[in-house]
Design brief:
By secondary structure, the protein is α+β, with helices and mostly antiparallel strands. It has eleven helices and six strands.
Length: about 450
């Protein structure tokens, strides 16, 4: 097992010399910088932050400068300025064009809680936008890590395919030498020729997969330069596999993980925030039945026929009270709608929470099972290697048939491929566990502390 992993790491290092290498952390950072969906979510978060500030501004006094120009017709002007035949009494002059300028300060005192609740709603929307960004980032990280390990797996499978191909060529050459020496059969050569063709086909399939995944990888990073993922160290592989394999039937570990999912999963946070937003909207709908009170102070510092900011001045302070008597049933309809929407959201939130926890639990159990599968494949590889060495030694002495030798060769490389595939599939599953938990996946900290 250790020989296989050391060989794998060596080949990964060889391919790393042919291209620029990049760590998993660097890959995630680069993908986040270039991903349009993440950039859009970041802009959405910034917009929500400014909307929150706008909503909070409604709690403060509103100050405005107002300027009005009024012009009346000739007849109205002459009539308004005509002398009044009452001794000792005269009307103030009426201007044909009147300029009025004032400053108005208004402050909402009570409006059924709409201003305060609106500010709270904007804050919830901002939190929801942040969690949505976190959720999109987690999805992107999973795609990056999945492609990262898939590409490494394909390079390791290519390495193993090359070894299998070389081994087959050597066996075919030995069969040809034995045939020329009169100690072998031509059918032995044909068997190895068929095996050689199969190995060449397998190698070609792996190379095609590498090209396809490499294009996906480069597109995912948004980089023009191809960068090869760095190999995982043997210590990381050993510690992670051993850790999860020991969690088999560990109910406490599962419950501890699900607690972290309930606490940190961004999708669950979005659902809970949405439930709070619907509840707040329901409270706002209740406030439409309550009266509203606003204070307004107006200082007029000009009202004359010239725009010189130096005319008649006056001020007034008004308290504006409004009580809804009849709105055509709109407030009642809005309240009923908000109540049923609240009920719908509660049901949907509970349903999605249950489904998400089930999916997280399934991922955890699958990861533990895959860790055990890696351990099983490790033992199978050790057995296949010992069997291959023994059969190969007997073949040199002419004590086994060509078919037995080929079966041992096939079993060795198939078990090694199964081990490699199960190993990287296991690492990808650990990425999913981090996603459910709402944590960033780090290659150098595959085994989360305290889990």
């Amino acid at each position: 097992m250790k020989k296989l992993w050391i060989s794998i790491l060596g080949v990964s290092l060889f391919f790393g010399l042919m291209a620029s290498s990049i760590s998993l952390t660097q890959s995630i950072d680069l993908a986040r910088e270039n991903n349009l969906e993440i950039l859009a979510e970041q802009a959405s978060t910034q917009a929500a932050t400014w909307q929150k500030k706008s909503a909070r501004g409604n709690l403060l006094p509103q100050v405005s400068f107002n300027s009005t120009i009024v012009r009346i017709d000739e007849d109205s002007y002459d009539e308004a300025n005509a002398p009044i035949p009452i001794p000792g009494f005269s009307m103030p002059p009426v201007y044909k064009t009147t300029y009025t300028n004032n400053i108005t300060v208004s402050q909402s005192i009570f409006n059924g809680g709409k201003v305060i609740l609106g500010s709270r709603l904007a804050k919830l929307a901002e939190d929801q936008a942040k969690e949505s960004l976190q959720s999109k980032s987690a999805d992107l990280e999973l795609r990056v890590t999945t492609t990262y390990f898939t590409l490494l797996k394909l390079y390791d499978l290519k390495s193993l395919s090359l070894k299998s191909l070389e081994s087959t060529r050597n066996h075919m050459q030995n069969a040809m030498d034995h045939f020329k020496a009169g100690t072998g059969r031509q059918t032995d050569i044909l068997q190895w020729q068929v095996k050689l063709q199969e190995d060449q086909t397998s190698l070609a399939e792996v190379e095609t997969s590498i090209k396809t995944v490499s294009l996906m990888w480069q597109n995912l990073l948004g980089s023009e330069e191809f960068m090869l993922p760095e190999a995982v160290t043997q210590e990381e592989l050993e510690s992670t596999v051993n850790f999860y394999s020991e969690l088999n039937n560990n109910h406490d570990a599962l419950e501890d993980y699900l607690k972290k999912v309930r606490k940190g999963n961004p999708e669950l946070k979005i659902l809970n925030l949405n439930r709070k937003m619907v509840k707040t909207n329901h409270t706002i709908a209740k406030g439409s039945f309550l009266p509203s009170l606003n204070l307004q102070y107006t200082y007029q510092f000009e009202s004359d026929d010239k725009f010189d900011l130096d005319g008649d001045d006056n001020w007034n302070l008004a308290a504006l009270i409004s009580f809804p008597l009849f709105t055509g049933g709109k407030n009642v309809s809005d309240l009923k709608s908000a109540a049923f929407l609240k009920k719908q959201t509660n049901y949907q939130t509970k349903y999605y929470e249950e489904q998400l926890i089930i999916a997280a639990e399934s991922s955890f159990l699958t990861t533990v099972n895959k860790a055990n599968s890696v351990m099983d494949n490790r033992l199978a590889t050790e057995y296949a290697l010992a069997n291959y060495e023994q059969i190969n030694e007997l073949a040199k002495q002419g004590m086994v048939t060509n078919t037995e030798l080929q079966d041992a060769d096939i079993m060795l490389y198939s078990t090694q491929m199964n081990e490699i595939a199960s190993l990287y599939d296991f690492l990808i599953l650990t990425c999913e566990l981090s996603k459910w938990e709402g944590k960033r996946f780090e290659k150098n900290t595959i085994m989360s502390e305290g889990r």
